[in-house]
Amino acid sequence: MDALPKPPPLPEPFFRRNAISFKMAGILILALLLLIPLALIRSLISERQARRDEAVMDITSTWGHQQVVVGPVLIVPYEYKTKSWKEEVVNGKRERVEVLETLAANAFFLPSELSVAGQVDPSKLHRGIYEAIVYKSELAVSGRFSPPDFGALGIAPENVRWAQAQVTMAVSDLRGVGDVLTMKLGELTGEFVPGCRLTGYDSGITARFPGLQAGSNLSFQMTLDLKGSGGVQFAPVGQKTRVKMTSSWADPSFFGAFLPTDRMVGPKGFEASWEVSWYGRSYPQQTTDQTKGYAFSPEQVEPSLFGVNFLSGVDSYRMVERAAKYGILFIALIFTAFFLFEILSALSIHTVQYTLVGAALCLFYLALLSLSEFIRFGYAYWGGAVASSLLIVFYSLKVLGGGLRTLIIAVALAAIYTYLYVVLQMQDYSLLFGTAGLFVVLGIVMYATRNVDWSTRK
Q1: Around 436, how many Cα atoms within 13 Å sit in the side-chain half-sphere?
Q2: pTM (2 d.p.)
Q3: Among residues 201, 212, 145, 137, which one has the least CA distance to residue 169?
Q4: Distance between CA 315 and CA 254 in Å, rounded?
Q5: For residue 253, what is the enclosing H or E element?
């Protein structure tokens, strides 16, 4: 009796035929879901940074903010006549008549030479775990004013009121002035009072010199005792401006329109000198407040400011925030390594196990944030990296079922954390270095899976 033919094999279920595709899709969805805790950590970074800024603001509000010094500027009032129309009663009728009025204005003269030299002594003040950089300084300010050329301003000499001459300076935060300030101008001595006569500057000092006359000696000198925080800036108001500063601070940041012509920075501090001519600014040497678009306004002066900031080393919150931006990349690389073990070694790794590994990677950033508030960023980084790596490595001993596979994961983690640390230390080349690293990783994955027949994987 003939044997019955065998029935054709039943087609494999859809999910079994495409198991590998569904597994890849699940891992991708899980990686995207882990963006939620990463976003929460980044929000926490912003919150801690705001709290730090608030604490620093509280400290500096009582000590003194960053100081900006503009001046000194010689002010000489003068009178001028102008025609105007007024209503008057003429023969019982109201008529508009032209009258000649005498009004007052001010002429402003910048020094032909200005020299600022002094010692700046920074220190740290703390509010809880946060710190602010503050400083005390003693600045010797000297120079001279050239004889004012009133003719170039269209002012007749007989209209000049030398007896009302003043010298004014803009100082951004007078709370940092710790002593009564005086200036010697020629043979005269004037005592400064609060208030700045420059339009647009709300904070400053002004001294009167009622004995000043045409042809007087206009050399000046004074000592400016100034406290502040963060940094100090100067305006190059002289035709020739020289600034020399020395400090025990080893991490200065020179900034502004002009960098030092000479500098020496070392572990014991810095010494820097600026030499700036009037060609590097956009405002004239002399002007009046009759001038349209008053020339000594903050809008004109601020682009020419220069100075130094006293940095507190690495801004840990900024570095942690930069590191957190690479979080999804970390997760993708480690998940890829685990997935390759599934494909190449016929392992079965559950979604929950992927989730726990992703949680350990996210905890690295939380550990980095919390540790960096107490210790240096480098120590905090490697402390968090070691803690996160140990969780994953010990867990992998069971999940991957072999010491060699776990060793590969450990080496991969060490390489990834080292790679990120190098990228964080870079500024100009971080994008280039990061792109090169991704090409290397993609090349490794392509090489490891070159012989895999994806159409037959289940």
Answers
A1: 9
A2: 0.72
A3: 201
A4: 17
A5: strand 252-256
